[in-house]
Specification:
The protein is mainly alpha-helical. The chain is 76% helix and 3% strand. β2 and β3 form a beta hairpin.
Length: 230
């Protein structure tokens, strides 16, 4: 029992360290491309190197950490190709989801499901990490209409990558306009288009004002960031 208790405690500590490192990656406290060491992380979290080592292995397997020259460990960078691929998948899945909502006449029910997440998104306006996570939850809810567990898993895997890209937009975009307000207004129009059975309006807002605009902002932010660190 004593040994089992120690193992359980160690596992819990490892999970805590893993969660802290991953959150810092997503919030860009550990920016893309930055080198990290087990020794520094262990000191930062006041733990031994073993839970850090296990957490780093897990994050490496998940693609958040990369090993570079002379086995140095880095936070995975964000490339233009990464951004384009993620948004391409998003458009395929989310447009299909929108079509399904209209085809199955689920407009009323799903508009309120989306609005429930949308309210949380608006409430997170002043915290861009929480805001972007809430925004991604709105879209994930939309995709859930497809009732496909494999697609749900694909979108779940994309979600953290998307959140990190969106946080990058807030930190490194060049424009002075209020991007969060644009996202909120676009999402509001998508939801109302669904509720009021206006397919063309909802599709336009989703493809052009939300996804295409988000892609443009993301590409600009990624290019700007990558130029700074080169």
């Amino acid at each position: 029992l004593k040994n089992g208790g120690v193992m359980k405690e160690e596992k819990s500590l490892t999970e805590q360290v893993y969660s802290k490192i991953k959150e810092r990656i997503l919030t860009l406290d550990y920016p893309p491309g930055i080198a990290i060491t087990e020794a520094n992380l262990a000191e930062e979290f006041s733990v031994s190197r073993m839970p850090v080592h296990i957490a780093i292995q897990k994050l490496t397997n998940e693609g958040w950490i990369e090993t570079g020259f002379r086995k140095k460990v880095y936070v995975k960078g964000i490339s233009v190709k990464d951004v384009r691929e993620i948004y391409e998948i998003r458009e395929i899945l989310e447009v299909k989801a929108l079509d399904t909502i209209f085809e199955k006449k689920l407009n009323w029910d799903f508009s309120f499901k989306l609005e429930e997440k949308f309210v949380r998104m608006k409430a997170s306006y002043h915290d861009y990490y929480a805001f972007e996570y809430a925004d991604s939850e709105v879209h994930r809810t939309m995709v859930s209409v497809l009732d496909n567990k494999r697609i749900d898993q694909i979108y779940l895997n994309l979600q953290d990558e998307l959140v990190r890209i969106m946080v990058l937009i807030f930190k490194y975009r060049k424009r002075d306009n209020d991007y969060a307000k644009q996202v909120i207004e676009s999402m509001r129009k998508i939801i109302m288009g669904i509720r009021e059975n206006r397919y063309d309006d909802a599709l336009y807002q989703l493809k052009n004002e939300h996804l295409a605009s988000g892609l443009e902002e993301a590409l600009e932010a990624v290019e700007f960031y990558n130029e700074r660190i080169m």
